[in-house]
Design goal:
5 helices, Aminopeptidase, seven-stranded mixed beta sheet, 168 residues
């Protein structure tokens, strides 16, 4: 397999990452990369650590992953929407592989690299890394469970998202 790497989004790779697309039937599973990058920017300017990365195979952009850290537990600790696994923990906020590159093991390699990054604790200590995925996305469910993520059905989102956590 070719070498997969994560590269921070910058002026040189921004447009290539925004051109990556999902298959038509996957469009409801992951937000568009341009939207995600705008969301990352808005969070960063409001003091929330967010780390958007392009996923590259050799020099070719094949996907996108975005990691965040919720360091606002003091402000939201009494908010019932802040589940016990959200505050002061990392989140794999987005992960997508372009439709032309799916089925080649890139998502698995990218997930390993993303978790390696999270385990460096770049924004502070954490006990968990969490994520959520559409309950109809069996590919995502299988990928994340292969890394040890455990579903949290009691925190199921009404919009069809299933949260899952991994103890770091």
């Amino acid at each position: 397999m070719s070498k997969i790497r994560l590269e921070p989004i910058n002026d040189d790779n921004f447009f290539a990452i925004t051109k990556l697309r999902l298959k038509r039937e996957q469009k409801n599973f992951v937000a568009d990369n341009t939207y995600s990058l705008v969301h990352a920017y808005l969070n960063v300017i409001n003091g929330k650590p967010v780390f958007p990365f392009g996923i590259f195979c050799d020099d070719k952009p094949v996907g996108f992953v975005m990691i965040a850290y919720d360091n606002l537990s003091e402000k939201v600790k009494d908010n019932p929407l802040c589940n016990w696994f959200i505050c002061d923990n990392y989140m794999i906020w987005r992960l997508m592989i372009d439709k032309k590159y799916q089925g080649k093991g890139y998502a698995k390699e990218a997930m390993k690299l993303a978790l390696d990054f999270v385990r460096t604790l770049p924004s502070g200590p954490a006990k968990y890394c969490w994520l959520s995925y559409d309950i109809n996305n069996s590919v995502a469910r299988n990928l994340y469970s292969s890394f040890g993520f455990k579903e949290v059905p009691s925190a199921y989102y009404e919009n069809g998202e299933m949260p899952a956590i991994l103890e770091l």
